[in-house]
Amino acid sequence: MILFNTTFNLDTAVEAAWLQWARDVYFTLALDSGYVHKHHLMKLRYEDENNGSTYSLQLFFEKDTHLEKFLVEYEFKAMEELSMRFGANAVYFQTMLDVVI
């Protein structure tokens, strides 16, 4: 099992709109792709004041080929849309992890 994690730092001005985008656009796209086994959206519980909010958007894939196809067919387009819509108010980094236990 592979975890594809995207960690977002959001300016408070766009947090509500980003949450709607994540729910209505991103997760719908991801689940409709047929490649994603399961998903989670987590929010960091404790943050420094005035630094916005941090979220972890997690997608689980059963096979490397599913992740690779998802990245090519869906992910790059979704992140382009995110950048156009939110600009520097929603910055992110991505990691890929193997589930061990």
From TrEMBL:
Species: Cytophaga hutchinsonii (strain ATCC 33406 / DSM 1761 / CIP 103989 / NBRC 15051 / NCIMB 9469 / D465)
Return the protein name.
DUF4286 domain-containing protein
UniProt-listed InterPro entries: DUF4286
One Pfam assignment: DUF4286
